[in-house]
Amino acid sequence: MPELPEVQALAQFLQQHAVGAVVGRVDIAALSVLKTFDPPITDLQGRDVTGTGRWGKHLGLDCDGIWLVTHLSRAGWLRWIDNPNPAPPKPGGKSPLALRVHLFTPEGAMPAFDLTEAGTKKRLAVWVVRNPSEIASIAKLGPDALAVTEDEFATVLKKTSQRIKSALTDQMVLAGIGNAYSDEILHTAKISPFATTGSMSAEKISTLYDTMRTVLLDAVERSVGQDAARLKGEKRSGMRVHARTGLPCPVCGDTVAEVSYVERSFQYCPTCQTGGKVLADRRMSRLLK
Q1: Which ranges carry the FPG-type domain (predicted)?
Q2: Domains defined along the chain, listed by start
Q3: pLDDT tens digit string along 187-238?
């Protein structure tokens, strides 16, 4: 899933490549992705692209007062095409293409960008709105993980009573962090994913805040400026524990462990984070009953 660093990099990529262009035809290959009808998506045609935006993991393109906003969900992505096929895509089918936006640049080029989604569970969402705050999932966001102050961070954590892994990934508590970067933040801060927010000391929260900013800013620095096609690989290359089950921890050499749920899993280092204790794996617990 694209998280704050990748969405920030995509916003920067569109700022450099799309702003200044004029929107041409907008092709919808999967009608289910469009979550709004007023203004109609055809209102984007002929408008200048004047800016980009990010709200948590939402990505937006300002088309002279009308916003095209997307949430890429777990398997969505943005793909830039310098020479797109001029023929409209066929709706439906097995293609990952959900939506294509054609552009006309001042230099006379006619590129496009695709919003795609792999897999069978289609959750990618697109809105066309006059104000991004009209979108319910944006209106409910907590403070942005890179904009929140340390005092605000401590306050929002103390207000929620849940495991710190869940709090970091709850977009209504803190916006922008998902499964991957929460694993990396907690590993770097040497905090158990199962630690509860209410039991964390002020010192531990301060350490977590500093670590969160360090991990995210480092990922943003590595991501911004990358071609959109290379961002996924850049994200994977920077991970120390996430998606590295069974491999040695780069800090202590212990084996990276995993806790699995129905649709996802997270990784951690027992030595660095839990005092050597292996956390209960819900999937294995069910199998052993």
Answers
A1: 240-274
A2: 4-139 (3.20.190.10), 150-288 (1.10.8.50)
A3: 999 999 999 999 999 999 999 999 999 999 999 998 887 777 777 777 888 8
